[in-house]
Design brief:
The chain is an all-beta fold. It is built from no helices and eight strands. The strands form two sheets. Strands 1-2-8-3-6 form a five-stranded antiparallel sheet, with no helix packed on it. Strands 5-4-7 form a three-stranded antiparallel sheet, with no helix packed on it. It comes from Synechococcus elongatus PCC 11802.
């Protein structure tokens, strides 16, 4: 039996940085119309008055830690381990807070916005 490539597997909660100046965005997989990233946050937040506005839909899941996510026009939402959210394309959003210890670990899946038929 052939040994699988080591890059074909991993554990998203192992070998995490204890602290970092910037969030770490680690690509895990990518196809023609989808990409998956691990994001490791150690207390970072969006700059004041900054809003993400993406062309893609984003599914985010907190694997460890917690974060406060705010979508424009909605009350901020605290996300804990196991909580997930779908951010439709052009849903203006920001991160107000991330837990530093232990680091907040996100799984983010980006895919094309839904189109009408």
């Amino acid at each position: 039996m052939e040994r699988p490539d080591v890059s074909d597997r991993g554990n998203l909660l192992h070998n995490l940085p204890l602290s970092a100046i910037a969030e770490q965005f680690i690509p895990l997989a990518q196809g023609d119309r989808c990409r998956i990233e691990q994001i490791v946050s150690t207390g970072q937040a969006s700059p004041p008055d900054f809003w993400y506005d993406q062309d893609e839909t984003e599914f985010v899941l907190i694997l460890q830690g917690e974060a406060e996510l705010e979508c424009q026009g909605e009350a901020p939402q605290i996300l804990h381990a196991g909580d997930w959210r779908i951010l439709p394309a052009h849903c203006r959003h920001r991160v107000n807070y991330t837990q530093a210890e232990p680091p907040t670990v996100w799984l983010a899946v980006f895919y094309p916005a839904a189109t009408g038929t």
